[in-house]
Write a structure and sequence with these properties.
By secondary structure, this protein is an alpha+beta fold. It is built from 3 helices and 4 strands; from the N terminus they run αββααββ. The protein has one domain: Histidine kinase-like ATPase, C-terminal domain (Heat Shock Protein 90). It has a 4-stranded antiparallel sheet. It catalyses: ATP + protein L-histidine = ADP + protein N-phospho-L-histidine. GO terms for molecular function: protein histidine kinase activity. This is histidine kinase.
């Protein structure tokens, strides 16, 4: 099993791709889940926001966003209910 197949099984990831765009490296990670509703997608990067019960503290996406921004990049999430979610990271070259 290759790295991409292992990632797909472990994270239930539909796929990922990266490319060069102008002076950026663009990394997109997507899944084919149920998607995230429009009222939630705007909040999921906020600290301590979570839709899960249990020991989840809602800091994972906040940490990713802050680390990417500290490196001069940007982080965004797009989602449509029923069509999955795409997380996009842009890093300057």
């Amino acid at each position: 099993m290759g790295d991409q197949e292992a990632a797909r099984r472990w994270h239930q990831c539909k796929g990922y791709n990266w490319r060069f765009w102008r002076k950026w490296i663009v990394l997109n990670v997507s899944d084919d889940g149920t998607g995230i509703g429009p009222g939630i997608v705007d909040k999921i990067i906020q600290p301590f926001f979570t839709t899960k019960s249990g020991p989840h503290n809602g800091l994972g996406l906040t940490a990713v966003s802050q680390m990417v921004q500290a490196l001069g990049g940007s982080f965004s999430i797009t989602s449509k209910p029923g069509n999955g979610t795409v997380a996009s990271i842009l890093f300057p070259i």
